[in-house]
Amino acid sequence: MNTEIHNNLEEAKIFLDTINTPDAIQFSEWTKEKTYLRYNGKLPQFPIYNNFIYWCNLGVNIGSEQNKLRPVLILRSSKNSPICTILPLTTKRLNDELWFHVDLEKIDSTVLVEQLKVVSKIRITDPFRRKGKLVVISKNDWTEINSQLEILYRLKPLKNE
Predict the structure, then answer these.
(1) Strands 124-127 and 53-57
(2) Residue scoring higher pLDDT (140 or 16)
């Protein structure tokens, strides 16, 4: 094994051994899985459509970032691109009325608009289905999500002072 790789993994192992909590174990499992995805992962063999929901492996993240295998809304996906822009969904509707949270009409989930991110399509594992059909968001949901995106990402011009 490459000495530098070995040293990095050993240092991480020593640190994680001192923590020894369930989330440290999940993190070490994700490190192994992410290594596999990075070097052996394959692009999905199914089409990825805009405005549809898919399962995505977001891994183990930091703080309040959405993680694990979870449903995501595809905002932008191009057939020839290895990446897509997603919005993570919760697995249960939040009904919290927080800014940038959109409760969906067709499924019991909330879109976390503030957590928009770009991911490799290798992370997309399966289409999200209900009663055997792909799930697409409603026009009302799409309008609300677009409204929240506009508010969240509205950029004001910088003043030249």
Answers:
(1) antiparallel
(2) 140
